[in-house]
Give the backbone structure.
Amino acid sequence: MQKEIIHKIPNGKLVRISLEYDTTILQKIKICGDFFVHPEETIEEMEKVLRHLPVEAGEIRIKQKLDEVAHSKNAQLIGIDTQTVASLIHEAIYQ
Amino acid sequence: MSKIETKTNSVQWRFIPIETHTAATNMALDEACAHAIAMGKANPTIRFYRWQPSAVSIGYFQSLAQEVDVNECRKQGVDIVRRRTGGGAVYHDYKGEITYSVIAPEKMFASNIVESYKQVADCIILGLKQLNVNAEFVPINDLIVNGKKISGNAQTRRNGILQMHGTILCDVDVDKMFSVLKVPDEKIKDKVIANVKERVTSLKHQGISDYQTVYQALMHGFLDGKEWKKGKWSEEEMEKAEILAEEKYGHPKWIEMR
């Protein structure tokens, strides 16, 4: 299945998440938008760690995964945050 | 820290007067310059430039297919490039805007990124003040005049070098802009365009239509209070830029990356 969700973060930027999943596993995810992440490749790393995550992984687990990447890259996120991304992924799957 | 740090006496800026290039070359020159500064081979640099042919640039994190009508660009001869900075899609009209880049060691700026946006934005504000246009900085990365957007900016920091570029709108044709840019919901595109027309302004709207006047004012805004010298690209920078323009910024692998 394929889903897309678009969300404008209040006082932040527009986030567009596209994902592909089968009945149990997240196959592919793309986090796009006009936000800023330093260093930029953090986002590809985030997309990578979410791949093959069980679809029933809740918001908390998704956010934890994203935070781990942000922490390991010493990343700064501007106009976007891991909580919003995690909620949007969860919402996209269950909408 | 409110001003860009210039007290470290020996800092002399290199100023590269306005140039016109293709989209790929413009982005490649920014990166080649950042590389040269990181290697200690170039001074902190301020440059101005234009885009010919007119071009669309998209932010690092944006999806090409979601943001740009590629066929329409091809039809109109509009270039497409992905920036190495985040932020949104921009239509760079050759006659409609002026672009700048500030490339320097990040230690010369506030470590807080939004604060450093403001430091560079202050140069634009000062420049526009010369034209009796009162602009203000709106976090994260915009400048507005009377509540309407006149400038968008984006920065990246790599290898200790901050690179920030942005555009100042001289004349804006919103219909033309949206003939090549997509909107999140194409069904309500007319409404979005009407809304953008309300929320965007240009120097022409503010009564200033001479490009050279705008350029001189911005030059003043960026260089005032700094020690600077007019300079040009080194051969090494030109060579690096040529490679980057061909193998990265002009290459589908990068442009279509997301």
Chain A has a mean pLDDT of 94. Chain A has three helices and five strands.
